[in-house]
């Protein structure tokens, strides 16, 4: 029982000489997340559309600007939602507290600690305790991304498959795993209960919680994979809009 | 394998100390505790090292090997071939002598955690699905390596603000128990200080029992605290229902 909670067995048999210096991992995190943030700023602040025929960039979906007739920095109306979701995500919290706050840079590191530390007890970091609300908003965005992924298969001349269609589909799938493996969602569907069999429905919430727990063991993997897929989807569509590349239709 | 290992073992007491060099003949399957026993028996009979079962079950021989919090009896020497093996006491706790630290603070914290208060007399009739989660926490051997590596305790001396990962497990074990009737959420939010944890998972990384401390205990407890103290809709509904945030809410499970 309880397999999803069991960790993967770790081997202690490796030669410790192969261990990386403690600062390598946080620096890699800083570089990747830093580049991603810079790219996102470039995309959000310097572009007003993310649509190329039937492809819609995840940065610009849903088209809130179109709904209200606002057409200044369209992505700003939407991009804050996934940003908020990722910023308050339990996995990314680990990464950026280590990478950017250096708190700690790594376990049992020898660097001098920052003088003041209050964890997540004070604002603004206490905001992370409301991760569930970011999840609610991210779920709405995810629904629109699935709509975009489906529409990406319908070209002017009917159904077809382009490289862009596949990228948007993979992006929607990875974001689905990332969203539904969330710790806050795991709490919502059953983690908050102490007894699954006491309410007369012994299996429903347990099965749901158990499944989310299985996905949750790979939450970090989904987090990085979906970050890469959002990036790839947007970059592909941006390059199409700029005329740098042409969409490849598989059929 | 080389013929011998070079160890630098911290020797001293609360007033100070230094690393002392020892050379120990290599043997197949040797663990760090074996090397320390060799030193004790042949080179330095006054070396203080706490140990008991030598089988990774008692949690006594916690120390830091080449900077990593580890059980001395579970750390093989053959992973350090060609290296100097530095053994130091756990940094988070006061030193008594050499590798022995005073971990009594943990036992004081343990007394602050309300024990299981069953809603029905034992023996309980429980379903396996209801005890799956807490059985993982029962694996804890109280080696306190998680307490040692927790940066709130280790780097920020937050002993007066946070119980530490070991006691988050302890609280989770009772709080998630299907037959428990005590509400520990106010304790978690205040004296327990679960908000001091910033989920950087070092405790999970060093746990020799491979308990997923952060994912399965601390984060679920943080979510329960969020339910009570941060979620504005839940707070509003609770207040409309005439309940106060800090008052423990007795759990009322149906007895099966």
UniProtKB/TrEMBL annotation, chain B:
InterPro entries: 2Fe-2S_ferredoxin-like_sf, 2Fe-2S_ferredoxin-type, 2Fe2S_fd_BS, 4Fe4S_Fe-S-bd, Beta-grasp_dom_sf, Helical_ferredxn, SDH/FRD_Iron-Sulfur, Succ_DH/fum_Rdtase_Fe-S. Pathway: Carbohydrate metabolism; tricarboxylic acid cycle. Its cofactor is [4Fe-4S] cluster; [3Fe-4S] cluster; [2Fe-2S] cluster. Residues 5-91 form the 2Fe-2S ferredoxin-type domain. Belongs to the succinate dehydrogenase/fumarate reductase iron-sulfur protein family. PANTHER family: SUCCINATE DEHYDROGENASE [UBIQUINONE] IRON-SULFUR SUBUNIT, MITOCHONDRIAL, SUCCINATE DEHYDROGENASE IRON-SULFUR PROTEIN. This is Succinate dehydrogenase/fumarate reductase iron-sulfur subunit. It comes from Sulfobacillus acidophilus.
């Amino acid at each position: 029982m309880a397999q999803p909670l069991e960790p993967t067995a770790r081997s202690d048999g490796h030669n410790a000489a192969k261990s990386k210096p403690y600062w390598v991992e946080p620096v890699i995190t800083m570089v990747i997340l830093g580049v991603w943030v810079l790219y996102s700023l470039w995309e959000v602040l310097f572009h007003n559309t993310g649509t190329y025929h039937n492809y819609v960039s995840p940065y610009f979906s849903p088209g809130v600007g179109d709904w209200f007739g606002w057409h200044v920095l369209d992505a700003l109306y939407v991009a804050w939602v996934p940003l908020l979701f990722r910023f308050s995500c339990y996995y990314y919290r680990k990464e950026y507290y280590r990478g950017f706050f250096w708190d700690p840079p790594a376990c049992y590191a020898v660097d001098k600690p920052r003088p003041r530390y209050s964890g997540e007890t004070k604002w603004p970091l206490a905001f992370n305790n409301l991760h569930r609300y970011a999840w609610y908003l991210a779920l709405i965005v995810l629904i629109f991304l699935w709509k975009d992924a489906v529409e990406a298969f319908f070209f002017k001349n009917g159904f077809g498959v382009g490289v862009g269609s596949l990228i948007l589909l993979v992006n929607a799938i990875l974001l689905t795993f990332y969203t539904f493996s969330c710790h806050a969602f795991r709490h919502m569907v059953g983690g908050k209960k102490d007894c699954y069999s006491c309410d007369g429905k012994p299996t429903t919430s347990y099965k749901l919680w158990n499944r989310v727990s299985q996905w949750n063991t790979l939450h970090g993997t989904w987090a990085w994979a979906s970050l890469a897929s959002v990036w790839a989807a947007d970059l592909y569509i941006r390059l199409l809009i700029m005329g740098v590349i042409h969409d490849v239709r598989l059929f | 394998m080389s013929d011998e290992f070079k160890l630098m073992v911290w020797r001293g007491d609360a007033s100070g100390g230094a690393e002392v060099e020892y050379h120990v003949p290599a043997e197949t399957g040797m663990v760090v505790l074996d090397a320390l026993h060799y030193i004790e028996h042949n080179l330095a009979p006054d070396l203080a090292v706490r140990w008991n079962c030598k089988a990774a079950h008692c949690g006594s021989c916690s120390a830091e090997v080449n900077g990593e919090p580890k059980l001395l009896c579970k750390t093989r020497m053959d992973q350090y071939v060609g290296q100097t093996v530095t053994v130091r006491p756990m940094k988070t706790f006061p030193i008594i002598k050499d590798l022995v630290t005073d971990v009594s603070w943990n036992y004081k914290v343990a007394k602050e955690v309300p024990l299981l208060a069953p809603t029905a007399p034992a023996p309980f009739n429980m379903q396996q699905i209801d005890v799956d989660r807490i059985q993982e926490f029962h694996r804890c051997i109280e080696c306190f390596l998680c307490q040692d590596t927790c940066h709130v305790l280790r780097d920020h001396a937050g002993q007066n603000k946070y119980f530490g990962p070991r006691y988050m497990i302890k609280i989770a074990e009772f709080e998630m128990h299907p037959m428990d009737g005590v509400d520990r959420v106010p304790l978690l939010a205040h004296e327990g200080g679960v908000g001091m944890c910033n989920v950087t998972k070092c405790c999970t990384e060093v746990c020799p029992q491979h308990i997923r401390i952060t994912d399965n205990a601390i984060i679920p407890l943080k979510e329960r605290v969020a339910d009570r103290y941060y979620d504005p809709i839940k707070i509003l509904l609770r207040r409309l229902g005439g309940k106060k945030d800090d008052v423990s809410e007795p759990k009322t499970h149906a007895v099966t």
